[in-house]
């Protein structure tokens, strides 16, 4: 299956959503396709990345994530009970693969898009407010797994776009949750390399 086919299939991975969330899924899939096209064009002169290629995957199994850590030789103990399960961020994954070596895969990008907050709409409908942060808390599961998989690397290539009324300037509930997920580093700032990478085993 081509990357384009996988990206189109990725649009249908979730349960029925409202119109805005469906558009979010479409937009992030287009963005991921643009990244693939840019990278392929950027490195086209060296021919197939000299034996490597970029693949799009809509999910990543827990087994694959554990194996990524295990091959780094920084941990010895793992619980394989749930290895058949997988995480499925909204934008999926871009994986660097080595041609002819099915065990080689490096995470290039994991992308999420979370629309958080319906209280503006509920207020117009005369309904009570709902608790804030459900979408962000779901984000936490995926981010925790990816950070664990990448904590021995100089980068954790994870990007999340957030929108919705719960991000209003006068709101602190959702931004505080995101700040915690972000290990108390600044929000809305792109870090290429980790700021505190002094340990060979754990880098923030």
Topology at a glance:
Layout (H helix, E strand, L loop, with lengths): L2 H8 L8 H24 L9 E6 L2 E2 H9 L15 E2 L4 E7 L2 E15 L3 H6 L9 H17 L7 E6 L9 H9 L23
Parallel strand pairs: 5-6
Antiparallel strand pairs: 1-4, 2-3, 4-5
Helix pairs in contact: 1-2, 3-5, 5-6
Number of helices: 6
Overall shape: it is globular
Q: In percent, how helical is the residue content? A: 25-40%
Q: What is the overall pLDDT average? A: 82
**Series of secondary-structure elements, N-terminal to C-terminal:** HHEEHEEEHHEH
Going across the major beta sheet, what is the strand order? 1-4-5-6
**How many whole angstroms does the radius of gyration measure?**
18 Å
- What is the number of E strands? 6
Share of β-strand residues: 15-25%
Distance between the terminal alpha carbons, to the nearest Å? 36 Å
Main beta sheet strand tally, sense and closure: 4 strands, mixed
Low-confidence stretches: none
Sheet/helix structural class: alpha+beta
Descriptive report:
- This protein is of the alpha+beta class.
- The chain contains six helices and six strands; from the N terminus they run H-H-E-E-H-E-E-E-H-H-E-H.
- Strands 1-4-5-6 form a four-stranded mixed β-sheet, sandwiched between helices. Strands 2-3 form a two-stranded antiparallel ribbon.
- Helix 1 packs antiparallel against helix 2, helix 3 packs parallel to helix 5 and helix 5 runs parallel beside helix 6.
- The mean pLDDT is 82.
């Amino acid at each position: 299956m081509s990357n384009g086919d996988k990206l189109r299939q990725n649009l249908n991975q979730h349960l029925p959503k409202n119109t805005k969330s469906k558009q979010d899924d479409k937009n992030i899939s287009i963005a991921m396709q643009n990244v693939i096209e840019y990278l392929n064009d950027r490195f086209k002169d060296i021919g197939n990345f000299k034996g490597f290629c970029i693949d799009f995957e809509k999910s990543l199994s827990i087994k694959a994530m554990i194996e990524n850590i295990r091959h780094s030789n920084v941990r010895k103990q793992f619980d394989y009970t749930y290895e058949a399960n997988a995480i499925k961020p909204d934008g999926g994954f871009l994986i660097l693969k080595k041609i002819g070596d099915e065990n080689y895969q490096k995470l290039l990008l994991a992308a999420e898009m979370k629309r958080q907050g319906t209280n503006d709409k509920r207020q117009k409908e005369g309904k009570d407010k709902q608790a804030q942060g459900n979408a962000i808390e779901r984000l936490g599961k995926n981010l925790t797994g990816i950070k664990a998989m990448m904590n021995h690397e100089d980068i954790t290539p994870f990007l999340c776009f957030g929108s919705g009324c719960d991000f209003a300037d006068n709101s602190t509930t959702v931004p505080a949750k995101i700040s915690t997920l972000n290990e108390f580093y600044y929000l809305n700032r792109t870090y290429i390399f980790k700021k505190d990478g002094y340990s060979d085993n754990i880098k923030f």
